[in-house]
């Protein structure tokens, strides 16, 4: 437990300092740890769009801080004018990443807080306090989720994770990696296998960086070696994060998660998802969810180096859907949901109220 403050202070993904949003620029990792500062909400929107900050909980809080900047940038003198400026900023921020539910949730929390104020200054103060509280709550929620999740893992487990659901995907502690952290903090000896997570390499650039940084025994594998690793009994549990969880237990996460879940089922390996209740979408059906399609150059080149012929068609979805029958449990801050998911998710949400 002693090393927690170090982890938080060194890898605080998004923060508010001197009326500016401060973020780790995740596009520069693992080569350099660079902090960037923004005083314009349009720059925060670009940062979310261009993956300077990513991970559902982190972009939820980033969106909230973006609206805090918008409230400071506004020259409004009345409540109505300020709310109008905030609504314009909310739309710009929301459109950056449509699949992650936390972004819409974070923006909605701030808009609800803003409506409670009567004067421009009161609204600014309410927004600021709400956004800062959301950042602090994110760490507490992840630590509670980690404790619930750690009970599912045993001493000497080797745990596979896909993409990055760690400190770098949240404000500090992590969702899937928060569970891994809490398991280690409970005194269990564990190893981690991280997939590289093509095409943007969040596993090799971010998860491997973060776990090595925090002293974990971590091995990196290409995405194509998931089946090999499982067939050769090199892994006995899987835990991933989520960008959206439906009331039915359908999970939307980084592209490639579905394959990992299918192979885990084939090899009898428990497959867990870790996600705060703010990631749950109780209204949408699977056919309603828009899967973000990203630019083709992520696939046709690595950095500036071309790796595919010119003019080739590219399909580059950012996320896929894992159906509930492949999921052993969904770890939240209110406990672990298990099948039948519709019932257990509802119970957890009611317990949280």
Rough outline:
globular
Helical percentage: 40-55%
Structural class: alpha/beta
Radius of gyration using CA atoms only: 20 Å
Largest sheet, spatial ordering of strands = 6-5-4-7-10-15-16
Tally of individual helices: 12
Mean pLDDT: 95
The number of E-state strands comes to 16
Give a quick account of the main beta sheet: strands, pairing sense, barrel closure: 7 strands, mixed
Could you give me the name of the CATH homologous superfamily of the largest domain? Translation initiation factor eif-2b, domain 2
Note the run of SSEs as H and E.
HEEEHHHHHEHEHEHEEEHEEHEEEEEH
The level-1 CATH class of the largest domain: Alpha Beta
Instruction: Determine the N-to-C terminus distance.
Output: 29 Å
How many domains, as an integer? 2
The unreliable regions are 1-9
Query: What is the CATH architecture assignment of the largest domain?
Result: 3-Layer(aba) Sandwich
Provide key terms for this protein:
M1Pi_N, 353 residues, Putative methylthioribose-1-phosphate isomerase, globular, S-methyl-5-thioribose-1-phosphate isomerase activity, four-stranded mixed beta sheet, seven-stranded mixed beta sheet, amino-acid biosynthesis, Four Helix Bundle (Hemerythrin (Met), subunit A), alpha/beta, Rossmann fold
